[in-house]
Design brief:
Layout (H helix, E strand, L loop, with lengths): L15 E2 L9 E8 L3 H12 L4 E5 L11 E2 L13 E3 L2 E5 L5 E6 L1 E3 L1 H9 L5 E5 L7 E4 L2 E7 L45 E11 L16 E10 L11 E6 L16 E6 L4 E11 L5 H15 L9 E7 L10 E2 L15 H18 L4 H12 L2 H18 L6 H8 L4 H6 L5 H14 L2 H12 L7
Parallel strand pairs: 1-9, 2-3, 2-12, 3-9, 6-14, 12-18
Antiparallel strand pairs: 4-8, 5-8, 6-7, 10-11, 11-12, 13-16, 13-17, 14-15, 15-16
Helix pairs in contact: 1-2, 1-4, 4-5, 6-9, 7-9
């Protein structure tokens, strides 16, 4: 439940941005990280700090991030400075009848502060402007030879990209022109794409979800949302001071022609600067609920609640997949590309920030001499047996919601938030005991119709699925 909600001026990266040098050979690295969002930047910085020659490929290294990143505080690594958290409201859920459930502490990250913190750690990283697709990552003996397309040339996809999850998909900081348009291994010819080549012992895919290296199928399960940013005083009818509304399942208003019957909810979080994001959200649908319908539902909801949205209010658009299976071993996936994204929330930034130093340490034990061992070690760290089991259960829970009649979905979440066990399902990517307890708690609290649907879904559960 994130998106793009305006942003401050772009911070300048602290790493070494490669500039055209006329060098004939490729840039050589122990680790090449593709994708410059929070996950990619955190891992690149940690790899350099572990003594590895590290290259970070970002399609627009100087472009500001505009996504809204949120987290459960217990998942944030303890070393994050206070400047990376904008607000610490109390999360609540509002049920269809108007009842409220307290969900506990919540954290809204300061996007610019997080970016500045990560950029300050890139001093030992070579930052290259560029992006790569699957065909650009080629094994070369025991190493990789990767062709990066320089932003602004005809070889890139030339379009926009989103953020490295906790939100919309893409490379991490968007696309567009950059002052640096080459580097070691720049290879241009009349009529050809402008590219640069990196020779790396190991490649990390941190390009978001769906990964640019393995795009998902069309029509997959997506979370979509449409939001606006307003003054906290204007938002007072739907979100109280000091609170974040995780889900408000009250109806957005009378059903209108053209609307589907799929339920949506209001997500409302304070930015800590006197403004609030108000977002109409479709948790998961195959395919994702269209953004124009979400925009209309939000307008109807806010008008009915007496919230006035001023002309020119910042707008947020969100669309990202939530049912992504674990990827192959090569390249090493990280962040939303692996995927760390939680199918019920879209969150992945906090787990990625916490895992980055541990993953870098594992890679440094084996690189540059044994990339195969490094890849195996990465897989074991990111996907131990408990994490694989939790991932399968989370995807099963998502399928349960997707298969439920729309009118029962709010009742399902009423049961979900009935006890504290629901929070266990939302956190702890390798907490199998907590996840099972959370799912059992939902079943106990569910009304008979919802229980029947849950039992039908459980009968079709495949414990060894990806």
């Amino acid at each position: 439940m994130t998106g793009t909600a305006g942003g401050a001026a772009a911070p300048q990266p602290s790493g070494t941005t490669a500039q055209p040098s006329g060098a004939s050979g490729p840039t050589v690295a122990d680790v090449l990280v593709l994708g410059g969002g929070p996950a990619g930047r955190a891992l690149a910085a940690a790899c350099a700090e572990a003594g590895l020659r590290t290259v970070l490929a970002d399609p627009a290294p100087e472009r500001a991030w505009t996504a809204t990143y949120c987290a459960w505080p217990e998942e944030l690594p303890p070393h994050l400075p206070a400047t990376t958290v904008a607000a610490r409201p109390a999360a609540v859920a509002v049920l269809p009848g108007g009842g409220r459930r307290a969900l506990g502490p919540y954290a809204v990250l300061d996007t610019a502060g997080l970016r500045a913190h990560l950029d300050a750690r890139l001093a030992g990283v070579t930052v290259l402007p560029g992006r790569a697709a699957a065909d650009d990552v080629r094994p070369d003996g025991h190493r990789y030879r990767v062709r990066l397309h320089v932003p602004g040339d005809r070889g890139g996809d030339g379009g926009s990209s989103g953020t490295d999850a906790d939100g919309t998909s893409g490379d991490g900081s968007g696309s567009g022109s950059s002052s640096g348009s080459g580097g070691g291994g720049s290879d241009t010819a009349p009529g050809d794409d402008a590219t640069q080549v990196v020779d790396a012992a190991l490649v990390v895919d941190a390009t978001g979800a769906p990964s640019r290296l393995r795009p998902g199928p069309a029509g997959g399960t997506e979370q979509t949302a449409w939001g606006v940013v307003v003054d906290e005083r204007a938002a007072a009818p739907v979100v109280r001071p000091g609170e974040a509304v995780f889900m408000d399942w009250r109806s957005p208003g009378p059903h209108r022609p053209g609307w589907t019957d799929w339920p949506t909810f209001l997500y409302a979080v304070p930015y800590g600067d006197g403004t609030v994001l108000l977002e109409e959200t479709s948790l998961a649908r195959r395919p994702g609920l269209p953004l124009p319908e979400l925009r209309d539902r939000l307008a109807a909801r806010l008008a009915g609640a007496g919230v006035t949205v001023p002309d020119g209010a910042p707008v947020e658009r969100v669309r990202f997949p939530v049912d992504t299976p674990r990827g192959p071993r090569h390249p090493v996936g990280f962040g939303a590309a692996t995927p760390l994204v939680h199918p019920a929330t879209g969150f992945s930034v906090a787990p990625a920030l916490g895992l980055a130093p541990r993953l870098a340490a594992e890679l440094a034990r084996h690189l540059p001499h044994d990339p195969a061992a490094a890849t195996t070690a990465a897989r074991r760290l990111l996907w131990p047996r408990s994490a694989r089991a939790v991932h399968r259960l989370r995807r099963h829970g998502l399928r349960t919601v997707l298969e439920m009649p729309p009118h029962l979905v709010p009742d399902f979440f009423d049961a979900f938030f009935a006890g504290r066990s629901g929070r266990a399902f939302l956190t702890g990517r390798d907490d199998l005991t907590g996840t099972l307890a959370g799912m059992a708690g939902v079943f106990r609290a569910a009304p008979p119709a919802v229980r029947t649907r849950m039992l039908r879904s459980a009968a079709a559960f495949h414990p060894n699925g990806r």
